[in-house]
Amino acid sequence: MSLNAPSDPAAAGATGNAESPAPKPLGVAVDAVADPDRSHLPWYRQLTGYHWFVFLIASAAWLFDCLDQRLFSLARIPALGALKPADTTPDDVQAFGKVVTAFFLIGWGVGGLIFGALGDKFGRSKMLMLTILIYSAFTGLSFFSQSWLDFTVCRFLTGLGVGGVFGLAVALIAETVPTGARVQALGLLQVLSTVGNVLAVGIKYAIDALEKSGTLQAGEGWRWMFLIGLTPAVMVVFSYKRLKEPAGWLKLKAEGKLPTGSILVPYKNLVRSTRWRRNLIVGSLIASTGVVGLWAIGEYAVDLQDRVFRGHFTALAKAGEIRADEVKSKVDNGKNLAYLLNMIGAGVGMWLFTKVTAVTGRRTAFAIGFSAALVVTAYAYWKMETPTDAYWMMPLMGAAQLGPFAGFAIYLPELFPGSLRSTGTSFCYNLGRFAAAGGSFFSAYLTKLFATGDPTSSLPLRYSAITMCAIFLVGLFTLPFAPETRGKPLPEEGDEGAPQRGFEPVPVAAAAPAVAGKA
């Protein structure tokens, strides 16, 4: 079967000749159609060339989004240390690092709410391209920061673009690939996000080496890390013309079923319906649990490692086992290795979560994931004392904390109909950003509250993180109220009390008369 021709002879030209494929309707990718002849194949063989193209672009958008997030995590403290005002203590830098993170997360949340609604109104692919341009541009502009203020502003504006990507990317994939491949494709999207994080570590390694060799000015490497964040914009140039809207979305547009008017209309439609409102609340609480757990707790494991590694290698230097000038490089290399192991664990955890949710259901998988995150995170913050501890604890922490993120990509699009899918998915995922921002402010408060007066002590960071682990209980208590979506098709528009029907990629033969000539 041709990848570019409709499988239905009725989609042939006006003469009825099945050997002559119908002209491709403008805006419709004809091989973004579920092919029943492939349904018995393994999920990856059910995908056509265009399915793979959509998957790769959406996954790359999220991969580079995660690259940006991780560059910020790795460069945050060095940047604030270089830009700090006079008479600023190390504890002040750590505390303001949490404030900058909070503003980044607020921008992330606002961007998600805005672009989620715009994705339902104007199209997933168009808005996805725009969000990539936004986060690329303002990441690059962070290179020019001269103070804590303009650095914070750049991170907030970067967050606007970063926040829009997830809901748009998962909606695009969910509505494009065949039903039999949806769970695995969305889980793999999240697994590939770890590649972005690993690339960030590789960039950090390279920048550290260039600083050490004198190629880059010492203390200025963080600027070049942000400048590299401009590169995802290149992807837009090569893909925006070929990436089309899902046929199902185009059908809804032709039938006049998409939200119109104010950007608030999709949200009004969500809360007006008992079914969608319930799903919105449940999805938001589940997603917020994971996002707060990662960004208000797990995010600061990098800072804990800095204290652990620095204390360990400084002690070795004092004992004469290493030279004093080797301490910094060993600390940096140790942290980079620990983070790489963390991401390997995350990739394994997300793939296992995808497997578990396909077999046992969404709720059981989340229950296992949140329970593991609670235990592993609290234990790691309490017991991590040496580099060896970090090397085995961080992979477990990555698997436990990031495993449920595969579930967000799979579960959230299954809660909402096509006309509200981007809005609902983005709202649930990005409400967690606001919660995480609040969590970061609260964590900063706890860090100050538990301060010992010793700037080298890791106890304030440990105590605040362990206290924050209570957030995982929120997700566990929410799960009994969550609808189980395993084995069910994506919901579509209709009476909220009616049996759930499928929202599947629409055959081009059926969609063409309604959408021909529409972009």
Structure description:
The chain crosses the membrane at residues 47-64, 95-115, 127-144, 156-174, 186-207, 222-240, 280-298, 337-353, 365-384, 390-411, 431-451, 463-482. InterPro entries: MFS_dom, MFS_sugar_transport-like, MFS_trans_sf, Sugar_transporter_CS. It is found in: Membrane. Residues 54-486 form the Major facilitator superfamily (MFS) profile domain. It is a single chain. The protein has a single domain (41-502), classed as Growth Hormone, Chain: A, CATH 1.20.1250.20. The chain is built from 18 helices and no strands. The relative contact order is 0.15. The protein is mainly α and 519 residues long. Residues 1-34 and 498-519 have low confidence and may be disordered. Helices cover 69% and strands 0% of the residues. The protein starts with 48 loop residues before the first helix and ends with a helix.
Query: Rough shape?
Result: globular
CATH topology: Growth Hormone, Chain: A
Distance between the termini: 26 Å
**Helix-strand sequence:** HHHHHHHHHHHHHHHHHH
The rounded Rg comes to: 24 Å
CATH architecture: Up-down Bundle
Number of helices: 18
- Give start-end ranges of low-pLDDT stretches: 1-34, 498-519
Counting helices, strands and paired strands, the structural category is mainly alpha
Helix content: 55-70%
